[in-house]
Amino acid sequence: MSLQSMMLIVLVTSGILLAVLLVLLSMVQHKLKGTQYQEQRRLKALLPTRTKDRRWLEQAHKAYPVLDELPVIKKLLHRMRARLTILHAGNEIMIRSRAAALTLMIITCILLISLLSFLWTSSWVSRATIMLVSIYLGGILSDLFIGRLVKQMLYDQSSMILDIRHEYHQTHMVQVSLENSAERSKPMVAMHARQIAGILAAVDPEDELQRYYEVAPNRYMKQLAGVSYKIGEYGDADIHKGERSIYLSMLGNIREEIHMDINRRERIDRLLYGIVFVAVSPVFMLDPIRKWAEGMFPIVSNYYNSAWGLYSLILLYITFIVSFIALRILKGVDEDTQSIKDEGKWLNRLLKNKWIYKVTDKITPAEHDPVHFKVAGKLKDANSGLPHHAYYLQKILAATGIFLLAVIIQFSIHTNIRHNLLYPNVEITTGGNQTESQRMLSEERYAFEHSLIGDLIAKDITPDQMLLYIQEQAENKPFLQNSLDKNAYAAQLMKRVEQYHREYYKWYELLLAFGLAALGFYLPDAYLIIRTQLRKWEMQNEVDGFNTLSMMLSQFPNISVYEIIEWLHRYSYIFERQLLRCMLDYEAGGWDAIEKLKEDARFVPLERLADRLQVAADLIPVKKAFDDMDAERAFAMDQRKEHYEKVISRKSTLGKMFGFLPMQATFTLYLLLPFVYMAFQQLGDLTVVTGKM
């Protein structure tokens, strides 16, 4: 069949198919125009549809009982559940669904990256590193997911408060306003609005309010519940006489606080967006970089397998760990109160062992010792709940762990160097632009040298005997050039044998391990210093919120100083313990309790607020003590915004520094230094050659 006939058949067939498709299209369009089909589509559109997210959450809810039976995954599931319970208090189905969904997402991330490590590299060290990074990324993903939910809740709370204001303008009834606004709000916050309305309608509203404080998702919901209770119980100002509504004023202040919190979170997330993945990426580049360098320049494998190369790799891993921990801390906005409450639980369990307790007690300073008070101040400044014995046990474990790790690494380095002396990179001998015959001879030479060095290491002979033995074995070998200097060749092999015998554990390495253990003993101190500094950045934010809250509460006619302190305690994350102690001591004397609060807090802005509370407790009414704060509010808000800018700028600078530090360290320690080593090696060889000329 000719080419023209084939083209004709193809064209005719295509035309027939096109005509059939056009006929089918006209029939379908005619059917769509029918009234019956249109009515079916209209009725179908009225039926509730499940989104992809809803279907996924339903499947995750079914998987919850299965995940709850698995040993390790069960702990992760409960951790996610504890974090989500704060956001979805009372909605058990949503808590279970999202906890299971988040757990499945983390497990999938860890499994996929772990599987990728087996395909990506053949080194077990690199695989273990990538697996650990996958666990870290799982934690980052959970933080991102929950952080997104927190921000969404804040947006929904702002809208709900706006609806409450609108309803209260019409009804002037708190409970009705909350119920009506719940109908218009998103489900996540509507549930809380209904709970607050239920508190006002309860038989014992004060008891119900205390219960709600334990499950409230954030400080703003606590404020809304408390303010609504106060207005519902004691009434609002007389709006008909032209007085300013206390409830509306406080709703406006709460909404303003929410907006500032949203802006702070959005800016931190935007400035540090993706920086974690930039920091993690060099972990996946280590093995490809080494393979490329050894493939292009085989001599650099001597550096990678030398003591300097292995120690630089360890330094690189330390850089990774420090950067990852720093980024995790910097991306946080508020402290994780659950982790603070759980701090030291496993240390306290260890201390129940009498031998561990006795060892720890030997180095723990006594209560009358000045060091005891110094450590107590450090723990207080860092908002740490560790007892002294638990803190010193932590220091002992850190020192012991670093010592053992250092000794294991040192032995591993010696083993690795010995292995490299026996099995150097074969490309050093067989690489380059060699012909096939030359490559075969090079491979024979490599096998000969490996066997010969193994025999020499096994034999206990003197250097002179070793020299004669090498010269005898090298006689009449076709893969050795006739022009080869036998003495120089023998000296080269003897040097490798000597290096092998020198690779044993030395006394100064043990001394180095003890030095690192001593540094490890002070690692908890360094961590407390970092926590204290970060806490100082957030202190001003919290005290600014205290000032706003105190100004709002002072508008209530019958408010007492104790009630204000109680509200501040509910609002607080950083000064929670100091305020709780002040509340417990208040009955013994308000002035002395607040004075003790100033001593415990040791923060000047909080001390100024405490001065107002002191005079309000004994000398003047509460309203007069805070009457000038409303006039200074505009200036205070400007100062607060400026402080936010400084904190965000610092976090952004540090975040970028730690985010790009792993990549810079990888380039310097794993790529630049090997090439410098290669350059010096070639320069040394060139010096030897020119010296013989």
Structural class, please?
mainly alpha
How large is the count of helical segments? Answer: 31
Task: Indicate the radius of gyration in whole angstroms.
Answer: 36 Å
End-to-end distance: 77 Å
Stretches where pLDDT is under 50 for at least 5 consecutive residues are: 47-51, 688-693
Overall body shape: extended
* Beta-strand proportion: under 5%
Q: Largest beta sheet, briefly?
A: none
Please give the share of residues in helix.
over 70%
What would the average pLDDT be, to the nearest integer? 78
* Total beta strands: 0
Task: Map the helices and strands.
Blueprint lengths: L2 H30 L2 H12 L5 H16 L3 H15 L6 H29 L3 H48 L2 H11 L2 H14 L4 H11 L3 H16 L11 H26 L3 H22 L4 H4 L2 H24 L6 H6 L2 H7 L2 H10 L6 H12 L6 H35 L3 H5 L5 H23 L4 H11 L12 H17 L4 H15 L1 H31 L7 H11 L4 H11 L3 H12 L2 H15 L3 H4 L7 H60 L1
Helix pairs in contact: 3-5, 4-5, 5-6, 6-7, 6-8, 6-11, 6-12, 7-8, 8-9, 8-10, 9-10, 10-11, 11-25, 11-31, 12-14, 12-31, 14-31, 17-19, 19-23, 19-24, 21-23, 22-23, 25-26, 25-31, 26-27, 27-28, 28-29
Key terms:
single chain; 693 residues; mainly alpha; extended; disordered C terminus
Could you describe the 3D structure shown?
- The protein has helices at residues 3-32, 35-46, 52-67, 71-85, 92-120, 124-171, 174-184, 187-200, 205-215, 219-234, 246-271, 275-296, 301-304, 307-330, 337-342, 345-351, 354-363, 370-381, 388-422, 426-430, 436-458, 463-473, 486-502, 507-521, 523-553, 561-571, 576-586, 590-601, 604-618, 622-625, 633-692.
- The protein has 693 residues and is an all-alpha fold.
- Helix 17 crosses helix 19 and helix 25 (523-553) packs across helix 26 (561-571).
- The longest helix is centred in the last third of the chain and has 60 residues, at 633-692.
